[in-house]
Amino acid sequence: MTSLKDSIYADPLGEINAFTFDETVVSVFPDMIQRSVPGYNAIITAIGLLAKRYAQPNSFCYDLGCSLGAATLAMRDQIEAENCRIIAVDNSQSMVSGFKDKLQGLPVSIPIDVQFADIRDISIENASVIVLNFTLQFVPIEDRQSFIRKVYQGLLPNGILILSEKLKSADERQNTLQTDMHHLFKKAKGYSDLEISQKRTALENVLIPETLNQHQQRLHNAGFSSAEIWFQYFNFASIIALK
């Protein structure tokens, strides 16, 4: 599967529709994510290393909101525990089809089950590692607590949740600074002011960020004994939550 350069918002749009992970986005997604999410490669690499550390024999490792499978493949390349299976789930049929195409011809060191489903509807069980890599921010806020509770209940003792999210700050000055720095990051990656503005409009009311405190409180309410940031680059962060 060949990735194209992201130019979806390069020309002025008379009407900007809500952002969706359709075929157009899928065709440019690898380029889009690299140029839009600071530290994305570092997070993906670390997900693989954390899976190597926490994957338990005879368990499942979940990549929920897998998109084209970057986190899934990072886990597959690192997991050494015997008889593990990775379950990768996404609610975009275009993403699922693209990921399945990518898997064709790749070595099958660990079984990978790619599913088209809403992550809120699937069964989560016997899990040693669960990854939500910039996924929860697209789940309606009113559903997030019950979903995280289901994640916690599906984890084995000593299991790990890796939760990556775009954050907002409770301090408006910090919020403005982090947003401005993210836009500068995107401009440094070649996006124009028009592209940044139009995509921001498309994501409004689709991607709903929360504060670190809100995430940590939700995780503790679900039962996690510890939830700490291990990585942050501007307003993009990743949290390790331990059962």
Throw out a few tags for this protein:
single chain; 243 residues; alpha/beta; Rossmann fold; 7-stranded mixed β-sheet; 21% strand; globular; methyltransferase; S-adenosyl-L-methionine; transferase; methyltransferase activity
Q: What does this entry look like structurally?
A:
By secondary structure, this protein is an alpha/beta fold. The protein has a domain of 165 residues: Vaccinia Virus protein VP39 (Rossmann fold, 3-Layer(aba) Sandwich), CATH 3.40.50. The chain contains eight helices and seven strands, in the order ααβαβαββαβαααββ. The termini are far apart. The mean pLDDT is 95. Keywords: Methyltransferase, S-adenosyl-L-methionine, Transferase. This is Carboxy-S-adenosyl-L-methionine synthase.
SSE topology:
Layout: H1 23-36, H2 40-54, E1 60-64, H3 70-78, E2 85-90, H4 93-103, E3 112-116, E4 127-133, H5 141-154, E5 155-166, H6 172-188, H7 193-203, H8 212-222, E6 226-233, E7 236-242
Parallel strand pairs: 1-2, 1-4, 2-3, 4-5
Antiparallel strand pairs: 5-7, 6-7
Q: Give a short account of the largest sheet.
A: 7 strands, mixed
| Helix percent band | 40-55%
Q: Please mark out the parts with pLDDT under 50 across 5 or more consecutive residues, or reply none.
A: none
Structural category: alpha/beta
Summarize the structure in short:
The chain is α/β, with parallel strands linked by helices and 243 residues long. Helix content is 42%, strand content 21%.
